[in-house]
Structure formats: C-alpha cells, structure tokens
Design goal:
Helix content is about 35%, strand content about 25%. It has twelve helices and 15 strands. It has helices at about 5-15, 35-50, 95-110, 135-140, 145-150, 160-165, 195-200, 235-250, 290-300, 330-340, 355-360, 385-405; strands at about 55, 60-65, 75-80, 115-120, 180-190, 205-210, 210-220, 260, 265-270, 280-290, 305-310, 310-320, 325, 345-350, 365-370. Strand 1 (about 55) and strand 2 form a beta hairpin. Helix 3 packs across helix 12 and helix 10 (about 330-340) packs across helix 12. It starts with 5 loop residues before the first helix and ends with a helix.
Length: about 400
C-alpha cells in the first residue's frame, strides 16, 4: 500500500516554520502580513511545480488542483496558513502541508485519480488580525455577512478588504468552492488537546464539532476613593463579579462531565489601584456536543440575580453555534484509512472550531486529528512529532484515494 514520504513532509514543515519565525520555536503569521504572503507564495510555487492549476477566489482562498481522468467534481483537502500571535508550527499549516504531500505522492507515484484533487488554503481562519475566526469559510457558507466582514479592522485600522486587495491574492468570485465543482472536503489538523497523547492514539477520526455558546456578563458599581469609603457602603463591581464567577463554576460543574467552560475575557474600569472598580466585564465560553446541555448552561446564566452585592448585573449572548455532525460515510472512510495502516485511533468530537464545520454545510466534510504534545496549541510550545504527522498524512492519502474510487 502506498504511503506518503516522511522526509518530504518533514522538509515542508521545517521550511514553512521559517515564515514568521519568532525565534522561540513558534511563528507569528497573521493574515496578509509579509510572513503570511511568503508562505502563500511558497505554497503556490510548489503546487505549480507539481503541475497543479492554481486559482484564487475573491476572498483570497487558494485552490490548487491536480486534474483527474474523468469529468467529475474535485475531492478537496486543506486548512489555513495564518496563525495567532506567537503560535505554533502545526495549527492549520499541517493540514495544508499534508494536503500538499498527498498531492505530491499522487504525482510522484503516478497514481491516476478519477476525480480532480484540490488542496485549499482558507483565508483568515484564526481571525487574529481581522476578527472573527473562520471568516472566509464562514462567508462561503452564509454564516457571516460579507459586507460586515470586509469592514473588519486590525489594530492599526486597516480593513480586511484593504488588506485583501493589497495582497495580490484577490481572485474571481466564480472560483469559490461550491457543491457543483467539489465532491467533498477533508481537513487534517492537530488535536489542540491532550486526549490522543494521553490515550496513546495515532489519530482521531473526527465525527463533528461541538456546539457552544458565548455570553458577555457585566456588573456596574460606583467608582470612589479606595481609602475613604467604608466597606459596608461600597458598590464594588469587581467584588460582585467574583461572586458571579464562583457561582457559574459551581453550578456548571454539576452538569455533564464533558461540558467545558471558560471565563476567557476580563476587563475592569477604571483599573486604578486607588479607585473602587465601577465596571467589570467577563465572557463565558461553554461547549458541549449535546444541545440540551448548552440549554442548561443558558438557564444557569439566567439565574444570576439582577443585583449582586449592591451592583446591577447585565448579560447577553454574543454568539453561539450548533453542534456539527460530519457526514457518516465520510467519517467511515477516515476510519477505514486508519485501519488500513493498522494505526491506533479513536472517534471523537472537536472542541475547537475549524473551517470544516462551515464547509460541511456545503459539501460532505470530515476531519483527521493527530496528537498534540501535552495538548499545547496557540502557543510556541505547540508540537506534534514528525512520525505522527506522517501517519495522519497517510490516513488522509488513503481517505482521498478511497473516496475517489467510490
């Protein structure tokens, strides 16, 4: 049975790690910055060298295609090349490079496929420069308003539209992924969690992406002098928020053991050491596969008292997403690929969001996970051993070839 080249894949990973190198094992490769453009240029150059046709759509997504022997829709795979600030060398990019290695293996081994084979680079998946995350796939799937996304600004006031037009990668709207020209989509990704490593699994067969809800919660107090106001007379917004955080964690811990929840953002005002805080804001991110559990989370939030420790409380849903179940026969194809190489595997749902969850609304899609050492991701310590990257790449290759023959 044919396998990808571990040496070629390792070379790809090492080469792309130079684009945005932080000097501390990681990368900063924000959307349409110079390091990101260099990575895109390297990708397109390698694809053209393999004889692939390369085109872009009007969002800057790149589609590199090997011709098939029949007039059939393309089987696609890929991920993204942008990163978070001081991110790692595997998140996103590994899905692109394993896709590229699968294409190179098909060329080098002279494998004839019935369907065209396409490797896709999605634009602005991380949303680190231009929020939100998964912007371009979200636009394609109708999740985001395109005009609003074009107006998204970075910290310097540059809009996504301006950066896109200056990048040289804005192509034709007609080149967008659609259900007529594309048959399916595979996305290989690092797990970004510790489960596969802990359970000593080679790969994960990903069944879907868990649903989630994100709430903003605020307390309003009264700013005043830290040295002159007696404690019983204070309206301390931070003191009130500490009760709310403890309440949320206590109550949510009573729900399903697979529920995860995070008070991720925190801000307070006036944030002066001699002033009682008068305004505090947090966010609560909660994720679970079962929508009924997410409903229970919302009920917990709604039970927060209107006034806590003399401070009024307000909350609102910022955004939410439903659980996405990948198409069963696509998941089965990946499982068969893992079995074909005798790799250890488990079925699981992704706790993190990925482009595949949006693309799944357009064409049949699924994902393959490889282990993340210590579960590290979105940081410079993010690591997946080359051997495990290669195993995931082989499963991707076999999955593509199996689907091609069906």
């Amino acid at each position: 049975m044919v396998s990808c080249s571990k040496e070629r894949l390792q070379e790809k990973i090492q080469t792309f790690s130079t684009f945005g190198d932080t000097g501390n094992k990681g990368i900063t490769r924000l959307c349409f910055t110079e390091p990101n453009l260099k990575a895109r240029e390297e990708f397109t150059s390698r694809c053209k060298a393999l004889g692939m046709e390369v085109k872009t759509d009007d969002l800057g997504n790149i589609y590199a295609t090997l011709k098939g022997t029949e007039d059939l829709p393309a089987i696609s795979m890929g991920s993204h090349l942008d990163s978070v600030i001081k991110g790692g060398n595997y998140d996103g990019v590994l899905g692109v490079l394993t896709g590229l290695e699968v294409a190179e293996t098909i060329v080098k081994e002279n494998i004839k496929t019935r369907h065209p084979i396409t490797v896709i680079v999605w634009t602005n998946e991380e949303g680190s420069r231009f929020p939100p995350a998964m912007m371009s796939s979200g636009i394609l799937a109708g999740k985001f308003d395109e005009e609003t996304m074009m107006a998204s600004k970075d910290k310097d006031g540059v809009t996504f539209k301006e950066a896109l037009e200056a990048s040289g990668y804005k192509g034709d709207r007609a080149n967008r992924l659609n259900d007529k020209e594309y048959k399916a989509f595979f996305e290989l990704h690092i797990e970004q969690g510790p489960v596969l490593e802990t359970e000593k699994m080679d790969v994960a067969v990903v069944e879907g992406v868990v649903g989630m809800v994100n709430y903003e919660i605020k307390t309003r107090g009264q700013a005043n002098h830290a040295g002159t106001i007696p404690m019983p007379m204070r309206k301390d917004a931070l003191y009130a928020m500490t009760w709310i955080i403890e309440y949320l964690h206590d109550e949510l811990s009573k729900l399903d053991s697979k529920l995860v929840y995070t008070t991720g953002e925190f801000s307070g005002a006036p944030n002066v050491h001699t002033v009682i805080p008068d305004h505090v804001r947090i966010t609560l991110d909660s994720r679970h596969q079962d929508p009924e559990v997410i409903k229970q989370v919302v009920e917990v939030i709604k039970r927060i008292p209107e006034v806590v420790r003399e401070c009024p409380v307000a909350y609102r849903e910022q955004w939410a997403r439903d659980t996405v179940d990948f198409k069963a026969d696509m998941v089965d194809i990946v499982e068969a690929g893992a079995k074909a190489y005798n790799y250890s595997y488990k079925r699981m749902y992704s706790g993190a969001g990925h482009d595949a969850q949006y693309i799944a609304d357009m064409i049949p899609s699924t994902m393959i996970f490889v282990p993340s050492i210590s579960g590290f991701s979105h940081c410079e310590d993010e690591t997946t051993p080359f051997d495990q990257c290669w195993k995931g790449c082989n499963v991707l290759l076999q999955s593509v070839l199996t689907l091609d023959q069906q």
